[in-house]
Amino acid sequence: MRPALLLLALGAPVAVLTGWTWPGSPPAPLRVTRHVRPAPALVLTSANGDTLSSLTEAELDIAGAAPPSPSAGDPVDAELALAPAPPPPPLPPPPPVEAVFRRQVSAVVDEGAGRMAVLLVETGEETRQTRVLRPGDLFVGRWRLAALSSDGAVLEDGKQRRRVSFYDATTAN
Questions:
Q1: Residue 36 in contact with residue 26, Cβ under 8 Å?
Q2: Is 77 a member of any domain?
């Protein structure tokens, strides 16, 4: 045969084998192996306390004897036992409705003929919305705007009445 043909015929398998075993090839996939803790040994002692032999569960199984029952007070089992998850922390109480209302009030609007309204600015994480609230309108949840003046408002929920002052420095938030 010609030397070039011979080199090609022998070179291809050598190149393939070299590529498989060459350093720098991708590492072998990782294998996960679970190691079981060693079986407890059953120690046989004589009446005077001398150790006669020590048998594992596997040796007892071969001999046809019953393996020892696991004790409830096994410290290894106690460590592996999962403790119950702690209860979640209690949610903080919602802020008082007066503070929420005062924070959202932007302006008091005189609509004429003795009617007034309040302009609220609701600020979210990404949005900022405005709305007009007139006496009788629902504010938040169960709270309604019962009365409105230029310096304050009254909110009701059917059971309670809360007075909100717009200019009180001691309760401003």
A1: no
A2: no
Bridge-partner residues for 110, per DSSP?
A: 116
Q: 41-89, pLDDT tens digit by residue? A: 555 555 666 555 555 555 555 555 555 555 544 555 555 556 778 899 9
Model's pTM, two decimal places? 0.47
Residues 6+ apart with CB under 8 A from 149: 116
Secondary structure of 10-29 in the HEC alphabet?
A: HHHHHHHHHHHHCCCCCCCC
How far is 54 from 37, CA to CA, in rounded Å? 17
Domain-located, residue 101? yes
Alpha-helix residue ranges (DSSP H) falling in the chain: 3-21, 57-63, 75-80, 97-104
Q: How many domains does the chain have?
A: 1
Residues 118-170 have pLDDT tens digits of 999 988 778 888 999 999 999 988 899 999 998 899 999 989 999 999 886 55
Give the range of the structural domain holding residue 132, as residue numbers without chain letter: 97-165
Q: Is residue 160, in this structure, part of any structural domain at all?
A: yes
Spatial distance between the Cα atoms of 161 and 158, rounded to a whole number of angstroms: 8
Domain membership of residue 60 (yes or no) is no
Q: Which two tokens stand for residue 143?
A: 């709270």
